[in-house]
Automatic annotation (TrEMBL):
It comes from the Bacteria. GO terms for molecular function: FMN binding; riboflavin reductase (NADPH) activity. This is Flavin reductase. The keyword Transferase does not apply. It holds the Pfam family Flavin_Reduct. Residues 158-189 are annotated as: Disordered. Gene3D superfamilies: Electron Transport, Fmn-binding Protein, Chain A. It comes from Cellulomonas biazotea. Keywords: Oxidoreductase. Residues 12-155 form the Flavin reductase like domain.
Length: 189
């Protein structure tokens, strides 16, 4: 028996996913969208995959662009992530864009980014999987990472873990482990 769509979504809501924005040029404007479906495929050649809703109005302009950038976000970029996640909100403020790679807009202040081209696409029902190959990669900032978990944006602060971690109860009592902060109604909790 196939998984019920809501149950399936609930499973993946519990899977922390890094948050990125894709930026591309479109007739002199910079467009973008937020996604958390980014995954590395291989290091040689440097390829990765991400998905876009097949009905997205942004997909045709992204596919028409000769190149794009995949920008890994830090917690300080949560407002941009939220804005570009909304259908119809795809314009990126000019003061947030750098032209590090000619013809490929890059997000100023991103934790890391890839300049890439789409190699191929795979139709996957209501989504399209895009396989891309990076031609430039750069890490830029050690800002607190931004993740999407339980349908919320969250920052993740690292904490040193012991070489041989204890049981979850021992970890809780000792205060060791990774701390997580949630984004709710404009405040961190």
């Amino acid at each position: 028996m196939p998984a019920v769509p809501e149950d399936f979504k609930d499973v993946f809501a519990r899977h922390p996913a890094g948050v990125a924005v894709v930026l591309w040029g479109d007739g002199g404007q910079v467009r973008g969208m937020t996604l958390s479906s980014l995954a590395s495929v291989s290091a040689d050649p440097p390829r990765f995959v991400f998905s876009v809703a097949a009905r997205s109005t942004r997909l045709p302009t992204l596919l028409a662009a000769p190149a794009f950038s995949m920008n890994v976000l830090g917690y300080d970029d949560v407002h941009l992530a939220r804005s570009l996640a909304v259908q119809g909100h795809d314009r990126v403020p000019g003061d947030r864009v750098d032209a590090v790679v000619p013809g490929t807009p890059v997000l100023r202040g991103a934790r890391a980014w890839l300049a890439a081209r789409v190699v191929t696409r795979f139709d996957a029902g209501p989504s399209v999987l895009l396989l891309a190959e990076a031609f430039h990669a750069q890490t830029a900032d050690d800002a607190e990472p931004l993740v999407y978990l339980d349908r919320e944006y969250r920052g993740v602060r690292s904490a040193e873990l012991p070489a041989h971690p204890g049981t979850p109860e021992e970890e809780r009592r000792s205060g060791r482990g990774a701390a997580s902060l949630s984004w709710r109604a404009g405040s961190r909790t």
